[in-house]
Amino acid sequence: MAKRGRKIPVALVIILILLISVTLAIVFNIGGIRDLVFSIIGKDIAEDIIGIPSDQDPYQAEREFINTEKTKLMALRTDLENYRAQLQDKENELQEKEAQLLEKEREIERLSEKLSVQYDDLIELTKIYEQMDGEEAAAILSQIDDTQQVILIIRSLKKEKSAEILGLMDAKLAADILSKMY
Protein backbone atom coordinates (compact mmCIF):
# COMPACT_ATOMS: atom_id res chain seq x y z
CA MET A 1 0.00 0.00 0.00
CA ALA A 2 2.89 2.30 0.47
CA LYS A 3 3.64 2.15 -3.23
CA ARG A 4 0.13 3.10 -4.19
CA GLY A 5 0.20 6.18 -1.95
CA ARG A 6 3.35 7.43 -3.66
CA LYS A 7 1.93 7.06 -7.17
CA ILE A 8 -0.92 9.44 -6.54
CA PRO A 9 1.23 12.46 -5.62
CA VAL A 10 3.57 11.78 -8.56
CA ALA A 11 0.59 11.59 -10.90
CA LEU A 12 -0.76 14.84 -9.45
CA VAL A 13 2.59 16.56 -9.98
CA ILE A 14 2.75 15.33 -13.60
CA ILE A 15 -0.83 16.51 -14.26
CA LEU A 16 -0.08 19.85 -12.64
CA ILE A 17 3.05 20.29 -14.80
CA LEU A 18 1.10 19.43 -17.96
CA LEU A 19 -1.67 21.84 -17.01
CA ILE A 20 0.83 24.67 -16.38
CA SER A 21 2.62 23.89 -19.68
CA VAL A 22 -0.60 23.98 -21.68
CA THR A 23 -1.66 27.24 -19.99
CA LEU A 24 1.69 28.87 -20.78
CA ALA A 25 1.53 27.61 -24.38
CA ILE A 26 -1.90 29.19 -24.74
CA VAL A 27 -0.95 32.50 -23.06
CA PHE A 28 2.24 32.94 -25.06
CA ASN A 29 0.68 31.51 -28.22
CA ILE A 30 3.45 28.97 -28.65
CA GLY A 31 3.05 27.25 -32.00
CA GLY A 32 -0.21 29.14 -32.62
CA ILE A 33 -1.98 27.04 -30.01
CA ARG A 34 -3.90 30.00 -28.58
CA ASP A 35 -5.43 30.74 -31.98
CA LEU A 36 -6.39 27.08 -32.32
CA VAL A 37 -7.93 26.93 -28.85
CA PHE A 38 -9.83 30.19 -29.35
CA SER A 39 -11.14 29.07 -32.70
CA ILE A 40 -12.47 25.95 -30.99
CA ILE A 41 -14.05 27.61 -27.92
CA GLY A 42 -15.18 30.82 -29.65
CA LYS A 43 -14.17 34.47 -29.67
CA ASP A 44 -16.42 35.69 -26.87
CA ILE A 45 -15.03 33.19 -24.40
CA ALA A 46 -11.46 34.07 -25.51
CA GLU A 47 -12.09 37.73 -24.76
CA ASP A 48 -13.38 36.83 -21.29
CA ILE A 49 -10.44 34.53 -20.49
CA ILE A 50 -7.48 36.60 -21.74
CA GLY A 51 -8.99 40.08 -21.76
CA ILE A 52 -8.09 40.94 -25.37
CA PRO A 53 -10.20 40.41 -28.44
CA SER A 54 -9.09 37.36 -30.37
CA ASP A 55 -9.31 39.25 -33.65
CA GLN A 56 -6.81 41.90 -32.43
CA ASP A 57 -3.45 41.62 -34.09
CA PRO A 58 -0.80 40.74 -31.48
CA TYR A 59 1.78 42.73 -33.48
CA GLN A 60 -0.32 45.90 -33.67
CA ALA A 61 1.67 47.66 -30.94
CA GLU A 62 4.91 46.86 -32.72
CA ARG A 63 3.50 48.14 -36.01
CA GLU A 64 2.41 51.36 -34.32
CA PHE A 65 5.88 51.75 -32.80
CA ILE A 66 7.47 51.17 -36.21
CA ASN A 67 5.11 53.69 -37.82
CA THR A 68 5.93 56.23 -35.10
CA GLU A 69 9.63 55.68 -35.68
CA LYS A 70 9.12 56.01 -39.44
CA THR A 71 7.35 59.34 -38.85
CA LYS A 72 10.23 60.53 -36.66
CA LEU A 73 12.71 59.36 -39.27
CA MET A 74 10.86 61.22 -42.01
CA ALA A 75 10.85 64.37 -39.87
CA LEU A 76 14.59 64.00 -39.29
CA ARG A 77 15.13 63.43 -43.00
CA THR A 78 13.16 66.59 -43.78
CA ASP A 79 15.21 68.53 -41.22
CA LEU A 80 18.39 67.16 -42.73
CA GLU A 81 17.31 68.21 -46.22
CA ASN A 82 16.45 71.67 -44.91
CA TYR A 83 19.84 71.95 -43.24
CA ARG A 84 21.53 70.80 -46.44
CA ALA A 85 19.63 73.44 -48.41
CA GLN A 86 20.60 76.12 -45.88
CA LEU A 87 24.20 74.95 -46.00
CA GLN A 88 24.16 75.09 -49.80
CA ASP A 89 22.71 78.61 -49.68
CA LYS A 90 25.42 79.72 -47.26
CA GLU A 91 28.07 78.07 -49.42
CA ASN A 92 26.75 79.87 -52.52
CA GLU A 93 26.68 83.13 -50.59
CA LEU A 94 30.24 82.56 -49.43
CA GLN A 95 31.40 81.84 -52.98
CA GLU A 96 29.68 85.01 -54.15
CA LYS A 97 31.39 87.03 -51.40
CA GLU A 98 34.74 85.45 -52.30
CA ALA A 99 34.21 86.41 -55.95
CA GLN A 100 33.36 89.98 -54.92
CA LEU A 101 36.41 90.10 -52.67
CA LEU A 102 38.63 88.81 -55.47
CA GLU A 103 37.21 91.46 -57.80
CA LYS A 104 37.88 94.17 -55.19
CA GLU A 105 41.44 92.89 -54.75
CA ARG A 106 41.97 93.08 -58.52
CA GLU A 107 40.55 96.61 -58.58
CA ILE A 108 42.83 97.63 -55.71
CA GLU A 109 45.82 96.15 -57.50
CA ARG A 110 44.86 97.92 -60.74
CA LEU A 111 44.40 101.24 -58.93
CA SER A 112 47.66 100.73 -57.06
CA GLU A 113 49.51 100.19 -60.33
CA LYS A 114 47.84 103.25 -61.80
CA LEU A 115 48.76 105.31 -58.74
CA SER A 116 52.32 104.01 -58.90
CA VAL A 117 52.60 105.10 -62.53
CA GLN A 118 51.16 108.52 -61.67
CA TYR A 119 53.59 108.86 -58.78
CA ASP A 120 56.52 107.96 -61.01
CA ASP A 121 55.30 110.53 -63.55
CA LEU A 122 55.02 113.15 -60.82
CA ILE A 123 58.57 112.43 -59.66
CA GLU A 124 59.81 112.83 -63.25
CA LEU A 125 57.89 116.10 -63.66
CA THR A 126 59.26 117.36 -60.36
CA LYS A 127 62.81 116.64 -61.52
CA ILE A 128 62.15 118.48 -64.77
CA TYR A 129 60.70 121.55 -63.01
CA GLU A 130 63.56 121.50 -60.48
CA GLN A 131 66.02 121.81 -63.38
CA MET A 132 64.09 124.62 -65.11
CA ASP A 133 64.53 128.28 -64.64
CA GLY A 134 61.89 129.71 -62.25
CA GLU A 135 60.38 132.04 -64.92
CA GLU A 136 60.00 129.21 -67.43
CA ALA A 137 58.45 126.91 -64.84
CA ALA A 138 56.04 129.65 -63.72
CA ALA A 139 55.04 130.34 -67.33
CA ILE A 140 54.40 126.64 -68.06
CA LEU A 141 52.50 125.98 -64.81
CA SER A 142 50.35 129.10 -65.44
CA GLN A 143 49.16 127.53 -68.70
CA ILE A 144 47.97 124.27 -67.08
CA ASP A 145 44.18 124.30 -66.57
CA ASP A 146 44.09 121.52 -63.96
CA THR A 147 44.76 123.35 -60.68
CA GLN A 148 45.04 120.07 -58.74
CA GLN A 149 47.87 118.93 -61.00
CA VAL A 150 49.67 122.26 -60.52
CA ILE A 151 49.24 121.91 -56.74
CA LEU A 152 50.72 118.38 -56.83
CA ILE A 153 53.71 119.58 -58.82
CA ILE A 154 54.34 122.59 -56.55
CA ARG A 155 54.06 120.43 -53.42
CA SER A 156 56.56 117.97 -54.86
CA LEU A 157 59.17 120.66 -55.50
CA LYS A 158 61.60 121.82 -52.88
CA LYS A 159 60.23 124.73 -50.83
CA GLU A 160 62.68 127.23 -52.24
CA LYS A 161 61.83 126.30 -55.84
CA SER A 162 58.07 126.34 -55.07
CA ALA A 163 58.36 129.80 -53.52
CA GLU A 164 60.35 131.10 -56.52
CA ILE A 165 57.79 129.75 -59.06
CA LEU A 166 54.78 131.04 -57.11
CA GLY A 167 56.48 134.45 -56.80
CA LEU A 168 56.93 134.63 -60.56
CA MET A 169 53.31 133.64 -61.37
CA ASP A 170 50.37 135.99 -61.79
CA ALA A 171 49.38 137.09 -58.27
CA LYS A 172 45.73 136.06 -58.66
CA LEU A 173 46.66 132.55 -59.96
CA ALA A 174 49.30 132.12 -57.23
CA ALA A 175 46.75 133.16 -54.55
CA ASP A 176 44.19 130.71 -55.98
CA ILE A 177 46.74 127.87 -55.93
CA LEU A 178 47.86 128.67 -52.39
CA SER A 179 44.27 128.86 -51.10
CA LYS A 180 43.57 125.39 -52.51
CA MET A 181 46.82 124.00 -51.16
CA TYR A 182 46.12 124.83 -47.50
Number of spatially distinct domains: 3
Q: What structural class is derived from the secondary structure elements?
A: mainly alpha
Instruction: Count up the helices.
Output: 8
**Ends distance:** 141 Å
Number of strands: 0
Q: What's the helix-strand series?
A: HHHHHHHH
Beta-sheet strand percentage? Answer: under 5%
Q: Give the helix level as a range of percent.
A: over 70%
How many strands, what sense, and barrel or not for the largest sheet? none
List keywords for this structure.
182 residues; mainly alpha; 3 domains; 0% strand
How are the elements arranged and paired?
Elements: H1 2-27, H2 33-41, H3 43-50, H4 60-131, H5 134-143, H6 147-156, H7 159-168, H8 171-181
Characterization of the model:
- The protein has helices spanning 2-27, 33-41, 43-50, 60-131, 134-143, 147-156, 159-168, 171-181.
- The chain has 182 residues and is mainly alpha-helical.
- It folds into 3 domains: 10-58, no CATH class; 59-113; 132-182, no CATH class.
Give me a quick take on this structure.
The chain has eight helices and no strands. The protein has 182 residues and is mainly alpha-helical. The chain folds into three domains: 10-58, no CATH class; 59-113; 132-182, no CATH class.
